[in-house]
Structure formats: C-alpha cells, structure tokens
Amino acid sequence: MYHPICATCGTQFAEAAADPAHCPICEDDRQYVGWQGQRWTTMAELAARHTLRLEDDGGVLGIGLAPGFAIDQRAMWLPTDAGNILWECVSLVTDDAVAALKARGGVDLIAISHPHFYASMVDWSDALGGVPILLHEADREWVMRPSSRIRFWQGDELRLSEGVALLRCGGHFAGSTALHWQHGPRPGGALFPGDALQVVADRRHVSFMYSYPNLVPMKPADVLRMRQVMEGRSFDDVFGYTWGRNIRGEGRSAVDESFERYLRAVGVETDEVSSRKKLLTMK
Ligand SMILES: [Zn+2]
Ligand SMILES: [Zn+2]
C-alpha cells in the first residue's frame, strides 16, 4: 500500500494498492490530464529525483521542489502573531526540510489557498507533529486524501489573530482563499492570494482566471465579489504562487488598478456604483 501522487497536478491521494484510474483534479476543466496520459509517482520517486529548495523569496522563506515539479508552486513559512504558518504546500516532504523548519521554531498550522496546492498536505502535517490543516469548506469535495488533521472553515473570513486572516476570494475555486498578514513580513503588510488573484508577468498587476492553463476568464460577478471581500484591507506586498512572482511595494493600488483593468477588459462599467448595480443584476 502507498499514497499515489499525480504527476501533473502534484496531489497526493489516499492509500491504495495500485495507481488510481483517474485524477479528478486534472480531469476538472480548470486543469488538464498530462499529454502522455494520466501518470502517477510516489514520495520515494520524488525524493530520488528532486530536492527541496528553501530560499528567501522577497523577505519570506519559500519551500519548493528543485527541479520544479507539477504546477511548481512554492510554499512559504510565515512567522506571524497567529503562530508559524506553512502557507500552501508541496508534494515532496524531506527530513532535511522538516529539520530546517523546526530549527526556525517549527510550524503551528498549515493553510492552503485551493485544491491545486493541497499536494502532500497530510504527510507535511504528520512530519511537523500533526499540525492542523485549514481548508475552506466549499472545496471539501477536492480533498483526495482525507485526514482528521484537516479542519474546514466556513464563511468569508477566518481571523487567526489580530494580524492574520484567511479571506475567501472564490472565483477560481469556490473556496479559493487568500491569507492577509497585516503587518508582515514588512510593516505595511502583505497579501498571499495563491492564484485567486494571480500576480502576472509584469509583477505590477494581478489577473483573474477560472482556469489558468486553459485560459478561461473569471466571471465578472466573481471578481466584483472578490473586490468587496478585499475592501478595507491594506498591504504593500503581494506574494504570488511561485518563486519571484511577487509585487513588492504599492500592492494595494496594484490590486485596485487590476480590478479596474480586468473589469474594463471584460466590458463591465468600472465605477464603484455602477459595478455594484451590475453585481446585483448579474446574479
Ligand atoms: Zn492530477
Ligand atoms: Zn489553481
């Protein structure tokens, strides 16, 4: 028995005697099955071919596979007033990486933006001493390896401390979540949106897609709703889903401008009042 890992999306599955026939995450229209057909790997195979890269990324410790694997996100270790948070997750767990995190004070909880980054979350929790994994309830059906470590939260906001909150953005997935760290890692604060808001190549804007690999735009009503959830949150920096994909400084105005730019591009009137009216009529 072993825990198969999908080679295309990097999700670890429940214990099995053989490779599953399908990966529901890849067969979903937001992802894709690998061009060679559905392929599987294991933790041991990953450990033989990859190492974990623990490196500073814009003032935060990032954790990702080298060479890159699957969607190639990097997790981040956030020392906050809500405890040390492992934000996002990756498919490989190594003793060296766990020891390095423990040497910095360990991890108190894991929080993940959406199902594409669930990866090997249960193995990571076990290796870190059985810490809780916070996922949004709306994405429960996408958990491929159930565990008592997983705690589903509901609603639009879960406040973890005075300075840290999980915000339900929706849009890409119904439960797509961003982490807002009000005064960290720099005093002006930061937003960690996974790909609910995707930091784009110019690193001065974000954009919004239902599917990134298949280029299906997000519904304007979902983007307008996300803008409301973001209202009144200040942050200087925005940390995207992978290495270097960050907006450093003036992040809040970059996000505001990006909401306007996107809504204009999909033909929605952009002033605040008309947007709210549209939101009501679009439901
Ligand atoms: Zn998959
Ligand atoms: Zn995604």
Characterize the structure shown:
The chain has one domain (5-282): 4-Layer Sandwich (Metallo-beta-lactamase, Chain A), CATH 3.60.15.10. Helix 5 crosses helix 7 (272-282). It has helices at residues 24-27, 43-49, 95-103, 121-127, 220-230, 251-265, 272-282; strands at residues 5-6, 40-41, 51-57, 60-66, 75-80, 83-87, 109-111, 133-136, 150-153, 157-159, 164-168, 177-181, 190-192, 198-199, 206-207, 209-211, 216-217, 237-239, 246-247. It contains seven helices and 19 strands. Helices cover 23% and strands 25% of the residues. A seven-stranded mixed sheet has the order 3-4-5-6-7-8-9. A six-stranded mixed sheet has the order 10-11-12-13-18-19, with helices on one face. Strands 1-2 form a two-stranded antiparallel sheet. The chain starts with a strand and ends with a helix. It is globular, with a radius of gyration of 18 Å. The longest helix has 15 residues, at 251-265. Helix 3 links the parallel strand 6 and strand 7 (109-111). With 283 residues, it is an alpha+beta fold. One zinc ion is lined by residues 6, 8-9, 11, 23, 25-26.
List keywords for this structure.
binds zinc ion; 283 residues; 25% strand; 23% helix; seven-stranded mixed sheet; Metallo-beta-lactamase, Chain A
Tally of individual domains? 1
Would you give the CATH topology? Metallo-beta-lactamase, Chain A
Strand order of the largest sheet: 3-4-5-6-7-8-9
Q: Tell me the radius of gyration.
A: 18 Å
Shape: globular
Largest sheet: 7 strands, mixed
Query: Mean pLDDT, as a whole number?
Result: 96
CATH class: Alpha Beta
CATH architecture: 4-Layer Sandwich
Q: Unreliable segments (pLDDT under 50, ≥5 consecutive)?
A: none
Helix content: 10-25%
What small ligands are held by the chains?
Answer: zinc ion
If helices are DSSP runs of H or I spanning 4 or more residues, what is the number of helices? 7
Pattern of helices and strands: EHEHEEEEHEHEEEEEEEEEEHEEHH
Beta-strand residue fraction: 15-25%
Which structural category do the helix and sheet elements fall into? alpha+beta
State the end-to-end distance: 47 Å
